[in-house]
Amino acid sequence: MVAAGDADQHSVAERLGIKPDMVVQEIGWDEDVDDDLRAAIEEHTGAELLDEDADEVIDVVLLWWRDGDGDLGDALVDARAPLDDEGVVWVLTPKTGEAGHVEPSEIAEAVPTVGLSQTSNLSVGDGWTATRLVPRSTSRR
Questions:
Q1: Which InterPro entries match (predicted)?
Q2: What is the mean pLDDT of residues 27-32?
Q3: 28 neighbors 102 (Cβ within 8 angstroms)
Q4: Is residue 127 predicted with pLDDT exceeding 90?
Q5: 141 inside domain
Q6: Which residue from 13, 62, 88, 102 has the highest number of Cβ atoms inside 10 Å of its Cβ?
Q7: Quick check: is 40 in a domain?
Q8: Which residues pair with 90 in a beta bridge?
Q9: The pTM is what?
Q10: What are the C-alpha distances in Å from 116 to residues 69, 107, 119?
C-alpha cells in the first residue's frame, strides 16, 4: 500500500537532484530528522544512505544542521572532503519557528569561507528546509 505522501517525497528526492545509483552520505543524523525524506532518497537511489564514516567518493551530502550543533564552517569542510568534484551539499535545517532553527545568514556567512556557493533553497518536508551548496568554480575557462 502506498501512503498519500510517498509521491511527494519521491519528487522531493528528484528536486534535490538525486538520481538513481548516486552515492548519498548523511551527516548529522538525529532522532528529529525527516525519516520519510530519508526513505524516499534511499528508494530513489536504490541504496542506503552512507554515514559519516564512509570512505567512498560521494555525489550528494545531506548535512542535517541545527542551531547549537557547533561550527557550520568546520562541518562543511568535513562534508566537502569526500565529495566528488561536481558533488552537492544540501544543508538541511529546521524551518523558522521549529526547535533548532538556523538563520539563513549563518549559512551565507559560512559558505564562501569553505569554497562553496549557495544556489537555491527548497522546502523538503513539514519541518525542514534544504540549502543547496556547490563547489565554486576554480577555473575561468
A1: DUF3052
A2: 95
A3: no
A4: yes
A5: no
A6: 62
A7: yes
A8: 62, 132
A9: 0.89
A10: 20, 11, 10
Tally of CB atoms within 10 A around 53: 6
**Is the residue at 140 inside a domain?**
no
In the predicted model, what is the mean pLDDT of the chain? 89
The contacts of residue 23 (CB under 8 Å, 6+ apart) are 45, 47, 50, 56, 57, 58, 59, 60
pLDDT at 30 over 90: yes
**Among the listed ranges 10-19, 51-60, 81-90, 123-132, which one has the minimum average pLDDT value?**
10-19
Residue 30 and residue 64 in contact, taking contact as beta carbons nearer than 8 Å: yes
Tell me whether residue 53 is in a domain: yes
Q: Which three cell numbers stand for residue 108?
A: 551565507
Neighbours of 60 (CB within 10 A): 24
Please report, rounded to a whole number, the percentage of residues in the chain having pLDDT higher than 70: 89
3-state DSSP call for residue 98?
A: coil
Indicate which CATH number applies to the domain containing 111.
Answer: 3.40.50.150
Print the domain residue range for 75: 4-135
Residue 134 pLDDT more than 50? yes
